[in-house]
Amino acid sequence: MLKAKNYAGKTIVTKHGDLTFDNKGVNTELPVAKEKELGEYDIFDYVEDKPKEAPKTAPKTAPKETKTVAKKPMVRKPRKPDAKD
Prior knowledge:
Blueprint: E1 2-3, E2 11-14, E3 17-20, E4 26-27, H1 32-39, E5 45-46
Antiparallel strand pairs: 1-4, 1-5, 2-3
């Protein structure tokens, strides 16, 4: 990020093209290598961009273990013979 308080809200011409600074005097249009090069001049301040943090999420817990109960084998009851009179 390139900062220049004197050029806040203005566009200036450099050897790297037109630079537009916002109301805070910040420009983020240039690649980092060119920002570092211009940051060597007294009128500009080069500030390294803060890495974006990943959104914090709750720590994942291990899935709960389910108890497996051995099923009893299915036993069929014998049928009663039909009573025919």
